[in-house]
Design a protein that fits this description.
The protein is mostly helical. The protein contains ten helices and two strands, in the order ααββαααααααα. The structure holds retinal.
Length: 259
């Protein structure tokens, strides 16, 4: 493992700590806010809270793994010999990325079974994208990393296309007071997701040694807060607007909402 300066070690340490706080706070907020939301959109908000909760747990483990990978004495950081575990991040994504796309589709409340179909297709593609990325993430060979990056980019681009082009027409079906936010949620997804394949390529972009790992860890941490907690709050805001738009009867009982 490469030699880190104390500053680099603490930057990553503090970034992980920040993510734990942000994910924990978002989880509590999202679960407490469910009661304000109409039954039709409650599941989307519940899933948002589950996503930040799963991430909060994984960041605890990531943080602990970081601490045990190094020992610090007198401001000098040395590798302890135990390897930093990248798998936590990938297991986290494997669980949460399919949930994130489902959350977006659910809050859009598409007609008939269109939503369920789209959500399962996008969730399967998201899982394939993450699984294809992992072999390259743990490899130190540039060509291997690049190969898996290319493979993972295939489902990534299909998802981006579906979100951007495929869901465009669904905006018109949204109540007027929520259209802007639903459109923003699509943009947030497309933009925050772009971070990941770029951060992944850091080792191939001329960053060297310790700086690469620091860049990757901080980069993924920032992207995760935006893509999970930030996005979750936007989903909650959409659900709240739609709740306000619905007739009073639909706000309290799912059976009355049918009629
Ligand atoms: C990988 C491997 C390299 C190529 C691509 C990737 C995409 C990852 C993405 C992850 C999204 C994660 C989210 C986490 C949540 O909060 C796996 C880095 C395309 C898009 C949204």
């Amino acid at each position: 493992m490469d030699q880190l300066t104390y500053g680099q070690y603490s930057l990553v340490y503090n970034a992980f700590s920040f993510v734990i706080a942000a994910m924990g706070a978002a989880t509590i907020f999202l679960f407490l806010s469910r009661s304000q939301i109409a039954p039709n959109y409650k599941t989307a908000v519940t899933i948002s809270g589950l996503v930040t909760m799963i991430a909060c747990y994984h960041y605890f483990r990531i943080f602990a793994s970081w601490e045990t990978s190094y020992s610090v004495s007198n401001g000098i950081v040395t590798a302890s010999g135990s390897r930093f575990n990248d798998a936590y991040r990938y297991v986290d994504w494997l669980l949460t990325v399919p949930l994130l796309v489902t959350e977006l589709i659910l809050v859009m409340n598409l007609p008939g079974n269109v939503g369920a179909k789209k959500a399962s297709k996008l969730a399967a593609l998201a899982a394939a994208m993450i699984l294809l990325g992992y072999p390259g993430e743990i490899s130190n060979v540039a060509s291997t990393r690049f190969l898996w990056w290319g493979l993972s980019m295939i489902p990534f681009l299909i998802i981006q296309y579906e979100l951007f082009v495929g869901l465009k027409s669904a905006i018109a079906l949204q109540p007027e007071n929520a259209r802007g936010l639903v459109s923003a949620a699509r943009y947030i997804t497309v933009v925050t997701w772009l971070f990941y394949p770029i951060v992944y390529l850091f080792p191939l972009l001329g960053l060297s040694g310790a700086a690469t790992n620091v860049g990757i860890q901080v980069g993924y941490s920032v992207a995760d807060v935006l893509a999970k907690a930030g996005f979750g709050i936007v989903v909650y805001m959409i659900a709240l607007r739609k709740t306000q738009y619905e007739p009073i009867s639909a706000r309290t009982s799912p059976t009355l909402a049918v009629g």
